[in-house]
Design brief:
The complex is a heterotrimer of chains A (549), B (282) and C (319).
Chain A (H helix, E strand, L loop, with lengths): L1 H14 L12 E6 L14 H10 L4 E3 L5 E3 L13 E4 L2 E7 L14 H12 L9 H5 E6 L4 E6 L17 H10 L4 H4 L1 H4 L11 E7 L3 E6 L12 E6 L3 H10 L4 E2 L7 H11 L3 E16 L4 H4 L1 H9 L3 H9 L28 H10 L3 E2 L5 E2 L7 E7 L3 H15 L4 E7 L1 H8 L8 E6 L8 H4 L22 H12 L3 H18 L2 E14 L2 E2 L18 E2 L1
Parallel strand pairs in A: 1-10, 1-11, 15-16, 15-17
Antiparallel strand pairs in A: 2-3, 4-5, 5-7, 6-7, 8-9, 9-10, 12-17, 12-18, 13-14, 19-20
Chain B lengths: L1 H21 L30 H37 L1 H15 L3 H10 L15 H16 L1 H15 L2 H8 L4 H37 L11 H10 L6 H28 L11
Helix pairs in contact in B: 1-2, 1-10, 2-3, 2-5, 2-6, 2-8, 3-6, 4-5, 6-8, 7-8, 8-9, 8-10, 9-10
Chain C lengths: L1 H28 L6 H7 L6 H11 L5 H13 L5 E2 L4 E2 H36 L4 H15 L2 H15 L14 H36 L2 H9 L3 H26 L6 H6 L5 H10 L3 H29 L1 H6 L1
Antiparallel strand pairs in C: 1-2
The chains are: A alpha+beta (549), B mainly alpha (282), C mainly alpha (319).
Amino acid sequence: MRRLLAALLLTVLFAAPARAPAAAARDELVIGITQFPATFNPAIESMLAKTYVLAFAQRPITAYDASWQLACLLCETLPSLENGLAKVEGKGIAVTYTLRPDARWGDGVPVTSDDVVFSWSVGRHPQSGVASAELFRRITRIEVKDSRTFTLHIDRLTFDYNAINDLRVLPAHLERRRFEAAPAEYRNRTAYDQDTTNPGLYNGPYRIAQVVQGSSVVLDLNPYWGGAKPAFTRIVIKAIENTASLEANLLSGGIDMIAGELGLPLDQSLAFARRHGDRFTVVTKPSLTYEHLDLNLGSPILADLRVRRALLLALDRDTMTRQLFDGRQPVAHSMVPPLDWVHADDIRQYPYDPAQAAALLDEAGWKMGDGGVRADAKGGRLALELVTTAGNRSRELVAQVLQAQWRKLGIELRIKTEPPRVLFGETVTKRKFVHMAMFAWYSAPENVPHSTLHSDAIPTAANGWSGQNYTGYVNPRMDRLIEAIETELDRARRQALWHQLQALYAEDLPALPLYFKADAFILPKGLKGLEPTGHQDPSPYWVETWRWE
Amino acid sequence: MTRCGAAILIVLLLAAGLAPLILPPPDALDLAARFAAPSPEHLLGTDELGRDLAARLLHGGRISLTVAVATAVLAALIGTAIGMVAGYHGGVADALLMRLTDGVMALPLLPLLIVLAAADPVKLGVPAAAMDSEGFAIGRLVVIIACVGWTTVARLVRASTLSVRARDYVRAAVAMGASPGRIMLCHILPNIASPVVVATTLSVGNIILIESALSFLGLGIRPPLASWGNMLTGAMDVVWSTPALAVWPGAAIFLTVTAFNLLGDGLQRALNPRGDWAETAH
Amino acid sequence: MGMISAGAARLLQSLAVLLVMSFVVYGLMGLMPGDPIDLMIAGDPHLTAADAVRLKLLYGLDRPWTERWLRWLLQVLHGELGYSRLYARPVLAAMLPAMLNTATLMAASLVVTLAVALPLGIAASLRPGSLLDGAVNLLAFASVSLPVFWLGLMLIVVFAVTLAWLPAGGMAEATAGGAGVLAHLVLPVGALALAGIGQYARHMRAAMMAEAGHDYIRTAKAKGCSPWRVVLGHQLRNALIPITTIVALEVGGLFSGALITETVFAWPGMGRLIYDSVMGNDFNLALSGLLLATAVTLLGSILADLAYWRLDPRVRRRS
């Protein structure tokens, strides 16, 4: 009797854990990400997790698609000078948009020009807490033609005049009351956080139906969505911070896919693909996230161009990206990513050449000393300090690789890590890094590097530390090129200017380019239609094309 | 059992000493051979940057052991000084010092160590260039851990001092006019030495655990310097593909701490057969 | 009367320690990388620009650190613990769920540990020198030498990776309510329990054996009481006194004892909160969390002393 019982117990124990991949209804998709949004208001606080979750439920008027072309999401036609919907006025431009007739909030109320005007007033208010206020400031007034058509009067003419991706539309019929009661308190009173499941807040294919703080968001179909009907009736997004746990959940069927925008680090994803390639595919796409080393050009060592070039020549970036990232993160030669249409291939590149690097250093006065470290005539060692974000495993690995490669050339590198808040809040913003800072710039397609390379964008105490030209790069020719590109409307002429800009960057090397990061999407074999975008407008903007096969 | 412990330690020391001769250097990167399986070239395989695992284990062992022994000795010195003064002088000094000891003992160990370890030495005036060296990294940890680790020895020494102080030969020395310092050093100290030695030996194991915990959290010994603790930090991320990276450093910690505990236990039995169980803090 | 005055003295002493701790830790925060004042103030969305300026003047680095500490203390005594940048909510709101989670973890592991360790210890004490006794000793020895985080990692490797029986960590994603959380509790509780069982079993064994030599046990046996009655009725009850003291001390480690385990298993508790806030330069949260952990530890040691005093009539009579 006891033996029978024991046998039964053992059978149960061994049978129970046998997990099959989730036999979830094929009309539900469970997505895993590594971070939970701190707020759900589309305009306040720029945060990738929030942008990702909202991408299913809320659409901006315009956005970049997977081929990095500007597309209309809520508007009917993209206004341009060619089709007459945009007209130059003085130094600025007037751009007219017409909202789609089927654009409606989840409670049936149509999206109107009134919503746009309201959103603009929120964005312009100094205390509302809106993150990217730049666009709102540039729009001097909005002329409402009718309930769906409006004209934006922008105070300056730039080539990307019709990209208003940052103008997130808020539902006036729900938010106006909350905003006007106390504008400074709006970010604490917004219905997006107080009443997140209110369908009227969302104008996309889905609406947020349920939120478990810190843990998961459930999205149901928006019955008033006028566009293509998505294949999934329900989407569940689970936030799992621990990457080992994220992987485990994927294998056990707790989640169906891992979103690349907020997923596993690339090398972990690749290792995963090697082990479970039969059930999952790993899709990567090089993005415009530019991983680089900002150099403090105020340091006497780095002020010498020969030293900067030698530093780059001494790095075997091809091997690094091949070995560490399976070749999925292309080596960068300037800040313009390879998928960008203005990318120039024929600028000066720095392939691995330790001999030339050594020659340059000798020429610059750094002779190999004892202990294997170079020294100048006065005996000062060629010792540099690199600061980067703590807790980022792949950056730590790359830093160690850099250290080892430079060591061979007689350059001593000290690696320092700081929490991101300190690095970005203090160290780079106030230009306190001694020699080098390793981090990534995250921008948009054809993004003009005004704030990073123009001489008027160097943060100083006098200007309240505004600007992102942390290297302190000053070159009048670069300034002129930047200003010219911003206002050049002719594509061919602009491309030529971009070519000159990239060539100048590669010659001067204010920063050392490393590579462009790639997001890794881990998708089950049957999921089709999901295309990584490679920029900050995430893939769920096109969730209507996702389907099981 | 004691001999077992001592044997393990000797083997470890020998291996650490011989390592530079037979194994590749611990910081030699080889990007082409990441996560390699064990081979004649790399006895235990390689880690995420292609560095030889065995070499890093032994190098890390050298660092961990140095930290642990130095900390134990420093903590013992501090604790002995405090305990002897408290036990010998009694009265206000004793009350004050014992309240201090109680206070420090009552503090949550790991959170406090984390705060201490996260402090930026540059703000204390340490020149940034000095911070690179292995010596500084070790020294910083030794000071931090010793700051909170002296309490057990202090208590022990105080109790022993109290009992020894009442002995005749001490009273004779006092009568002869010897200074308190001389009495403490020449008469009391030699007689309380054995429990202190035992407690110190037993504490080494504990300190190894604390240091590896701190390094695991990223606050102790930082890469590229190897430490058993920081070798395990990286292992968390690759625990699926290369579990071996998680097994070896932990096994090394376990073995070494066990060896020290065996040694300490044996010493205790030899030197203090009737004594109470020595406290091993968690 | 004696107990109350002694208790009051201990309480005052603990408050003094807490005060000194807050002073020391506040000073240590100033040594963290970055500008602590900026970081303390800047995260609060309730602040207007004018407020931020005013606060910077108040807390500014030009003020001596001792003065800044006093101002902070006054603020805390008014119930204003500050705002957590990391969690974008007031410090207390960030700490409460973490406290609950850690309490759950520690309570569960204590229950499991005692449930296994006490019977083991009793059994070992009844058969000294036997195989069981040897095994208990070995386990105790091993558990003291084992790094808890490695144990946790090994458990993950075996049960979550290789066998895929249990989740690899976290807790927040357990949307299936109670049953889900239970699955996530198993491994961390397992790690903590395995680390603690050896110690408790050894303590129990020692306590039982200490009691065994006493006269009243021999008297009871001579009286003809059945062996079980002797063990359970007399020996055990007295042996539990030192155990209770030790458990009371464990309560002191309620919020800080599982820090490493919480990190390995991504359990969102107080230990992780303190670690994340120190690493994330969230000074308000780090200060408050650390002081809370200290207060609870001090409370634990007071409880231990009280328990000892209460349970052991010999001690009471002596004073």
